[in-house]
Amino acid sequence: xxxxxxxxxxxxLSRRFKRTWALRGIDLEVLKGEVFGIVGPDGSxxxxxxxxxxxxxxxxxxxxxxxxxxxxxxxxxxxxxxGYMSQAFSLYGDLTVEENLEFFGGIRGIxxxxxxxxxxxxxxxxxxxxxxxxxSSQLSGGMQKKLALSCNLMHEPDLLVLDEPTLGIDPLSRxxxxxxxxxxxxxxxxxxLSTSYMDEAKRCGRLAFLLNGELVACDRPEAFGEDLEExxxxxxxxxxxxxxxxxxxxxxxxxxxxxxxxxxxxxGFTAVDxxxxxxxxxxxxxxxxxxGSxxxxxxxxxxxxxxxxEGEVEVAxxxxxxxxxxVRGRxGYMSQRFSLYLDLTVKxxxxxxxxxxxLSPGLLDERRRWVLDLSGLTxxxxxxxxxxxxxxxxxxxxGCSLLHHPDILFLDEPTSxxxxxxxxxxxxxxxxxxxSGTTVFVTTxxxxxxxxxxxxxxxHQGRILALDSPGALKSRHGTDxxxxxxxxxxxxxx
Amino acid sequence: xQRLFAATRKEFLQFSRxxxxxxxxxxxxxxxxxxxxxxxxxxxxxxxxxxxxQDRSQISQxxxxxxxxxxxxxxxxxxxxxxxxxxxxxxxRADMGILIPPDFSGAVRxxxxxxxxxxxxxxxxxxxxxxxxxxxxLITRFSQEAAAExxxxxxxxxxxxxxxxxxxxxxxxxxxxxYFMVVSMIVVAGVFVGLIHAVATMVREKETGTMEQLILTxxxxxxxxxxxxxxxxxxxLLSLLPSLGIALWFGVPLRGSVLLFFLASAINLFSxxxxxxxxxxxxxxxxxxxxxxxxxxxxxMFLSGTMVPIESMPMPLQYLSYLSPVxxxxxxxxxxxxxxxxxxxxxxxxxxxxAFGAVIFPVSLWHLRRGIYQ
Lengths: 494, 374
Prior knowledge:
Chain A has helices at 46-53, 75-81, 97-107, 112-126, 141-153, 171-185, 198-202, 221-224, 228-235, 295-303, 346-356, 361-374, 390-402, 420-435, 470-476, 482-491; strands spanning 6-17, 20-31, 35-39, 61-66, 69-70, 82-85, 159-163, 190-194, 206-211, 214-219, 257-266, 269-279, 284-288, 310-315, 318-319, 331-334, 408-412, 439-443, 455-460, 463-468. Chain A is an alpha/beta fold.
C-alpha cells in the first residue's frame, strides 16, 4: 500500500442505540501514516466512531472499510491488524509488567523469538525496563498507561486506535506517551486517537470534530484557527450557565484550613508529608502533581476519610485527628469516581442528598431548582442518572455536593474526561462558589485549569516542591506557561 | 429522623429498580423450595423390582404382592434367570432383586426353613438401607403370618403367639421427609436473603464510590444500616406468604402460631443481615463479598440441621453447630410447624437467635467506622 492511500473509508455511517442516534451520516477517510485526532464534547459519538472502526460495533447503516475489509463481514481480519485501547482498557493488576506483556503477546500468537525482541524494544521505548518484575497494580497511573500502550503494540498493528489515551495522567507522563506515539507513527503506522486536551489535538495531522453524532469539520488543526478551544466553544450552543449563586456570604473564618507536620503513611510507605500549610476562606487552592504524588490522599485526610498518621490538621475549626465526624455536613466532596446513584433519577439524587444534609423542604425546593439549572437538567428531573453523559453527570454531582452550601469544597479531579467547553463552564461555577466565601480545594491534571486557582501547590512524593500563586510561579521560572513550570519543577525533583 | 427517612426512601427506590434481585429473592422463597423438596426428597418410593420366581406358585405370588401393593415399590419385572437380575441392577433399571427358590411354597406349607434372596443396589446407600428395612419387615411379617396360619391349621384351639410391635411416630406420623425439606428450604431462603442482600447493598456503595460521599454527610453509620435493612425485611417477610402457601400445598401441617413464625423470621433476617454487614466491611468489591459469604454460608448451613440432623453428626461438630444461628431458626421453625409449640418451649432458641444479631451488629458497626479512618 502506498503512503497517503486511505486506510479507512467510512461512508454515510450511522449508528443507533435504542432510540438515540450516536452517529449520523459520517463520511470520513483516514490516510496511511496519519495521526488522526477525534475531538468533540461528551456524548458527541467519539467512542462509537472508534468502536465502529475497530469492528466492535456494527453500523446501523452505511459502511466502514478498514484496509479494504468491511467491518461486518471482515471483522476478524480487522481485529487482527489493529490495536485498540479503550478508556476502560485494564491490565491484570496481579500480573507483573513482564507477565502482562507475555499475556498480550500470547493471545496475539507471537512467536517466542519475535516476542523477546519486541519485548526488549517496547521496554526500552516505554522506560519500563527497571520495573519488569513489578506488579502492574503497583505502577503509577502514567506508567500503567505506557504499559497498556506497550501491550497493544506487541503485535505491531498497522493501525492503532486509542480512546482518550492520556486521560487522568500527569503532564510528564503525557509527554512520554506522546513521544512513544510519534516514534511509532514514524515507522509508517496509522494512529487514531480521541482527546480532550487541545494541545494534543494540535499535534495531530488532521482533526475530526464531532458534535451530536455528526461530523462538523475535518481538517488540519491549523485550519481551525489559533485557539482551538475557542473555536470549538463557539460551535457548541452555550448552556445557560447560572450566574447567581443563591448562597449567603460565609463568615470570614468559616473555611479556614491549617496543616502542621502532617504525615500519612501506609505500612512503611509515606504517602503525604506536609510541613506547614494554611489556606484562607474563599481561596481556590490547587493541588498539582504526578500520579501517586499524594494529592488524593491529602484531600481524603482533609475530609476525614483517612486519619492522619501524625501531625495537626484543622479543618473549619475541627481537629481532624480527634473528631473528624464534626466536620461532616460542613464540607462538600466530589471524588474522581462518579459519586451519585446511577439507578436513581436526577431529582431523587438531589432530594436524597438534600434531605440527608438536613435541608428543610422549602430550602430543598429552592436549591433543587438551582442544581437543575446548573446542570442544565431542568425538565429532565425524572431521567435516570445513569443515562446522562459524563459532563452532565459531573455538573449534577457538583450541584449535589453544594446543596448544603459547604464551608469547604473538595474536588478531586472534577473535570477528568470532560470536554474543554464544559470544563470552562465548570470553573466559572467554582469561581462563583469561592466568591461566596467557600474554600475550594481542587486537584487536576489539566495544568491550564490551575490558572484559575488563587494558589497552587506542586506535590511530588507527598511533599510540596513549590507553593505560590500561578502568576508568581510563572514569573519565577521565567515562562508564561504553568505546564512548563510543572515540568521543570518535576524534572528537577530528587 | 429526616435523615433516616431519606435514606430508607432511597434504599426502597434502588431496590424497586433492581428487578433481577427481586426475582432472585422470590425465586428462592418459592421455585427453589418446590424444586428442592422434590429433588432432595429422601423418601424412598417407586423402587423398581426384578423378580426371579422359580417357584411360580400362589404363595410366591402372595409374597411378591406384599411388595408391589406398597407405595415403596413400583414397576416389577419378572425375569427368567439370576443373570438377568445382575443385568437389571447393573444397568440401573432395577433397584432391588428378589430370588425365590423352586421349593418355596412347599417349604412355607411344611414350615421348613427357606431362604429368599434379596439383592440391593447399594449405589445410594441411603435408599438401599431404607429398601432393606422395607424388605425385612415385609418378609418377616409374611413368614410370621404363614407360621400363624400353619398353627391354626394344626389345632383350631390355640392361636400362635405373634408379637407385633406398636410404634407411634409423633409430629410426622408418615415419616414424610418432604415436610422436613419444605421447612428447611424456607429457613435456608431466609438466611440466604438476609445475608446476601445485606452484603450486596453495602458493597455496592463501596464499589460505586458513593460510600465515601455518604460518610461525609451527617448520615450516621447506624442510620445507613437501618435504612438498608428495611427493604431486606420487607421482601424477606412478604416472600414468606407464597412460601407458606407452598408448604400447605405439600400438606405440611402448621400446628403453631403463624405470627410467631413471622417473628422468628424477622429475628433471623436481623441476625443474617448482621453477618452480611460484617462481611461487607471485610470486602472491597461484590465478588469478594460473595466469595466470603459462601465461605461462611455453607458451614453455617451444614451445621444447622437443615441438611442432616444434628444428632447424626460427630460430637465436636454438634458442639460447633451451636455457633450457627441457622440452627436456632431451624429448630424454631420445625417446632412451630410440626410440633405446634410456642414461646414457652422455644424461648431459648429465640433468645440465642436474637443474641447472635445483637452481638454481630455492634461489631460490624465498629468495623465499618474503623475501616474508614484507617
